[in-house]
Amino acid sequence: MTDRTESSEPAAIAVPDLSRRRFVAGVGGLAATSLVAGPALAQAQAREAPALAQAVAANQLPPLAQRLPQSPLVVTPVERVGQYGGTLRRGLRGSQDHNGILRMVGNQGLVRWNLEFTDVLPNVAERWEVNQNATEFTFHLRQGMKWSDGKPFTADDVVFVYEDCLANSELYRSPPALYVVNGRFVEVTKINDHTVRFKFAGPYGMFLTQLATPLGQHPTLFQKEYCKQFHPKYNAAGLPALMRAASVNSWGDLFRAKCGDIEIPTRWGNPEKPTIDPWVIADPYAGGATRVTMRRNAYFWQVDTEGKQLPYIDAINFSIAQDVESLMLDVISGRIDIQERHIDTLQNKPTVAQNAQRGNYRLFETINAGSQQVTIYPNLCHKDPTVRAILNNRDFRVALSIAINRQEIIDIVYLGQSEPWQLGPRPTHPWYHERLARQHTEHNPREANAILDRLGYTRRNAQRIRLRPDGQPLFFAVDVIPTLNPDQVDTLELVKRHWAEIGVDMKVNTIERALYYTRGDNNDHDFAVWFGPGGLEPLIDARDWVCMHPQGSRFGIPWAMWYASGGREGQEPPDNQKRRMQLYDQARETTDVRRQGDLMKQILDLAAESFDCFGPCLAPNLFGIASNRLRNVPARMPYAWSWPHPGPSMPQQFFFTS
Amino acid sequence: MLGFIVKRLMWMIPSLFVVSFLAFVLIQLPPGDYVTTYIATLAASNEIVDQTAAADLRARFGLDQPFIVQYAMWVTGIVTRGDFGLSFEWQQPVSGLIWERMAFTLLVTGSTLLLTWALAFPIGVYSAVRQYSIGDYFFTFLGFLGLAIPSFLLALVMMYIAVVEFGQEVGGLFSDRFVNAPWSWAKVEDLLKHLWVPVVILATNGTASLIRIMRANMLDELHRPYVTTARAKGLSEFRLLVKYPCRLAINPFISTIGWLLPNLISGALIVGVVLSLPTAGPLLLQALMAQDMYLAGAFILLMCGLTLIGTLISDILLALVDPRIRLE
Q1: A358-413 pLDDT, tens per residue?
Q2: Which of A51, A172, A327, A389 sits 20 to 30 Å CA-CA off A313?
């Protein structure tokens, strides 16, 4: 039972189960505290940006008290209460970088993450109740909260999103998986203007966590008042003219072009669309744009501890760089105020650090939420029965793993900034699993050779490569995408040498990313590598220990398809894997964190026993830069997509010193 | 002449069809499609696309249709409605995206062409007339240097020097405050301040090759008997040069127009990317990388159309300037 309110009683806020998950050491506290003195006092103290005050004086804008909800979210600044003003400069790429904007401003869901990435806090919803078996979630919205155009944000908006949009098969062919339990779409009902209830067909303990991630922002995405004009249910007569004006052929295209969706560029392409973000679009992110600007939302519904309306900073200016090198040039010459996206590779770190003084910026650390830097996935469902038999032998995989000289890879490729590692939650995580993380990481080529001899691969060819029972050399191609992660190619080059020492031949198969996906989907690969996620969110992204991701669990894509399709497609996995899938389903259903931990322990035990995939080292922490004038940026923050950094560190409370 | 032009125009129609088909095939050739690329790009930042959303996208864009159906739908749209399709990524009609950028492309390439001609013509003539003089060697040296340095490298070096040594902002065609401002004199002035950088970089390469061509052509003409005759008749050296050999040697300049028009889009591509110019090149590159089919297809189609028109114009001009050329 998770029943949290934002009242003044601390007991009602603290949830003992969750508090034990506060594990990221050293992260500064940033918590939305409750409004101790009640709404009246907060509004009396409330202040606003000078430009807005002028607009109010000129009667162009309602006074602040009417723009804020009765109980605005109170944000405790990271360092201190800030001052108004300034334009934040940041870089984007010209194509497919819409999530760069999302990460900065667009993380305003019903709930949000705390800075430590351990707990879900109130956001648009000021409190909520969950029923006993986690099938019903009732959210209480903030009374008097407004969209950026001044219209009230109510339960009708939330219901519109689910009933008219997500459930409409012309707009969403099938509703987002996030809201489907036991094959049934969630039922969303309005209790009153500021209360909505989500009812699922079965227990859904992970729902709140999912709502805190970027993909869970649907409830606050569409304003009914604006978006209904593009919907046939409300404006069937007017649609043809609107479609002609926008030169699109279906109302679905029109709706997406005008209202966007969570992860498509048009979300940031329409300045007219009302949002609840701290800044709203002024110059849109559109094809061929050379910059994107955003200006403050006069109706933003969060205040600081002194009751000053956020955001502090007036505007954001995203410059668009066509290539990453010119973005780097902007960073080191001090023409960017905060940046981590695109530039935060270990290879860039020395250059960025060297120029910190000249560029007048400082570095902050991003705690990698990933687990394994380069997970090496043997294809345990290989189409060729001979290869499948070889790879399915656990001892064979152990030999491949201990043949790798992990320290050498860490020293050469990762500049010494990592440690030997296999899989699983990071060492700082309470679910850290010693055996899964550290087994078979010691470099021992002699033992590896002995294992292979024992397995019967004793014959060798002229190049000293061992032969398979059918006389073919032991050879594998390892798929890797050079453009995404150049470091993975460097790592594999070293692994190739290490494996040659035990008589196993390997080709670093550098391929274009789309081909990589196609080969994975068709189950054509011998081995593939990918960045192994789940270090800080082992339950959300469990692809390396549970075969749950049809495109990501590359050691058994057909097994993952079997799981995702409920047994209709793919191949039936072995018992160990099947047991993990059952446990995983149970862990996702329960809201009890202790029980989740117990189930995860069993899953990780089974994964360690099975030893499906392996890798060289722990994903190293990365960095970002912040101008020395920019304050309230935490010194450390998670690096993740579920916690879309830097968004949950609340850029609305960043400010410039004069 | 008229018959020639009409005949050429008629031939353009089948050529365009073949070209559009080829363009479409080429864009489809790489494995995967827009949605795969989209998923992969997002995955690079560890961002995840909802599985059903991806399948939904593919169906909505018609990517699950057979190739030939997609092509037929595209061509029908263009022929019947002048509709080049919707850009997958931007959800905007392709035509809107393209024309926006063509004006700046025209400006940059046009200015570059003028500068190239203004430099290459006199230098080429001088080098030919004063062959093996110190001046000739100097310009030859410069010319080979210009030919040898790739323009994008020149752009990178210039940017680095400007940023590191002078702390100046380079890149783009406007200063920050003018980028999205309405047109005004101040904005034009600002444009001119930025325009010279890409123009000089792009002109370096073109000038160098044109100097060489001009020099070689002039040298061919200078020793012809008609030059000697004209000189014997007492024509002043300057008038003689301009009136006879130059007129003949100018042919390559006119031929440039043929490949100038397609160059509008593709030629300055890498420089456009490096300097973040709002020209067509970077957008074409993005579209190709993202496998945004209709956008890329429209660019390539336009480019081929321009090549055909460009060749036609230069053929007509050549015939006008040089009576020796016959159109049959």
Answers
A1: 899 999 999 999 999 999 999 999 999 999 999 999 999 999 999 999 999 999 99
A2: A327
Dihedral angle sign, alpha carbons of residues B29, B31, B32, B38: negative
Q: For position B51, what pLDDT does the model report?
A: 65
CA distance A604 to chain B (A): 23
Q: In this structure, what token pair is assigned to residue A20?
A: 């034990």
CATH number of A86-221+260-302+313-366+635-656: 3.40.190.10
**Is there a cis peptide before residue A646, judged by omega within 30 degrees of 0?**
yes
A287 vs B30, B45, B90: nearest CB: B90
B268 CA: distance to closest CA in chain A (Å) = 14
For chain A, the domains span 86-221+260-302+313-366+635-656, 372-610
* ipTM reported for the complex surpasses 0.85: no
Distance from CA of A182 to the nearest CA of B (A): 15
Total tally of structural domains belonging to chain B:
1
* Terminal-to-terminal C-alpha distance of chain A: 48
The domain that contains B231 carries what CATH number? 1.10.3720.10
Question: Which member of B31, B83, B91 has the closest CB to residue A256?
Answer: B91
Assign A544 a pLDDT band (cuts: 50, 70, 90). Answer: very high
- Number of A–B residue contacts, CB under 8 Å: 164
Q: Cβ separation of B40 and A517 shorter than 8 Å?
A: yes
pLDDT average, residue stretch B174-193: 80
Contact present, A21 and A430 (Cβ < 8 Å): yes
* Inter-chain residue contact A641 with B46, CB threshold 8 Å: yes
Q: How many residues does chain B have?
A: 328
Q: Could you give the percent of chain A with pLDDT greater than 70?
A: 93
To test the contact with chain B by mutation, choose from A230, A327, A481, A513 the residue with the greatest count of B C-beta atoms within 10 A, namely A513
* CA atoms of A640 and A617, how far apart (whole Å): 18
Q: Is the pLDDT of residue A24 over 90?
A: no
Helix (H) or strand (E) holding A291: strand A291-296
Q: Which residues contact A587 (CB under 8 A, 6 or more apart)?
A: A205, A539, A595, A596, A599, A600, A603
Give the distance from residue B282's alpha carbon to the nearest chain A alpha carbon, in angstroms: 7
Residue in B with minimal Cα distance to A94: B286
pLDDT band at A19 (very low <50, low <70, confident <90, very high): very low
Q: Which residues of chain A lie closer than 8 angstroms to B97, CB-CB?
A: 287-288
- For the question of whether the overall pTM of this predicted structure is more than 0.90, the answer is no
B274 neighbors A326 (Cβ within 8 angstroms): yes
Whether residue B148 lies inside any domain: the answer is: yes
The answer to whether A641 contacts B45, with C-beta atoms less than 8 Å apart, is yes
Q: Which of A287, A320, A564 sits opposite B87 (nearest CB)?
A: A287
A331 Cβ partners below 8 Å, 6+ apart?
Answer: A91, A339, A343, A352, A359, A361, A625
In order of A134, A137, A164, A211, B23, the CA distances from A187 in angstroms are 14, 11, 12, 16, 47
Please provide residue B130's backbone torsions phi and psi, each rounded to the nearest 5 degrees: -105, 60
- CATH code given to domain A372-610: 3.10.105.10
